[in-house]
Design goal:
There is one protein chain. With about 240 residues, the protein is mainly α. It contains eight helices and two strands. The chain has helices at about 1-5, 30-35, 60-65, 70-110, 115-145, 150-170, 205-215, 215-235, and strands spanning about 190-195, 200-205. The protein has a two-stranded antiparallel sheet with strand order 1-2. Helix 4 (about 70-110) packs across helix 8 and helix 5 packs antiparallel against helix 6 (about 150-170). It is elongated and about 95 Å long. The two termini are about 40 Å apart.
Amino acid sequence: MLDALMGRHRNAEPGATIHQPTWEDDGVCPYFLVEYCPHDLFTNTKSDLGPCENIHDDALKVAFSKAAMNARKERIMDDFLRMGQRMLSDADTKIKRSKERLVQDYREQLAKNGVTPAQQEEIEMKIEVLTEKINKLVSEAEDAGEKGDVEEAQGIFKLSEQLKTERSELQDSLVLNGQLSSEGQFSTRRNMEVCETCGAQFVSDSQARIDDHLMGKVHIGFNRLRASVPELKETIN
């Protein structure tokens, strides 16, 4: 804060020669020059990386953006890209493991309620087959309707509704506190979900809870990463 108010050289002796930093100096944060420093993404969260010890200067960032491409600038951009890719890779691994844990927890809850893993698998296969049949019938009903065969379309539609009822009954046999979505995909207790962007688990039983998660600093940080990394990769290519 003192640097921002009085400058980084506030303690220099009067008349002393002051070196004005350039973006190529070692003490300048290379990530900040390219776009942003990862230490600024998750401050005061569980993912906080701590303060960055290097210089963050908007004037140096502007100078970096205007500078002609050379070996050092190219290396800095490559370093930022590798940093972003590494963080996203870690997040994707977290997402995969979190989903596996939630599904395992769900299956264990079903087993406690008397639904064995074999029964779960059989029911899931039946739901999948019914879903394919329903989608096919709906398509056939639409084709019949377009051809003007209203009676055939109504008959096919009625059959698809019967299959939907059968599928719904199968889904109900696997539901624990709303753990199975309407599409037949596994969720978790109390409508828990794993965020595809940041890997955090959150309760999705209301729009307010969803909005709270989307406005969280961790989610916003990873959302920014997922947007900037592909853009930078394209720029470098």
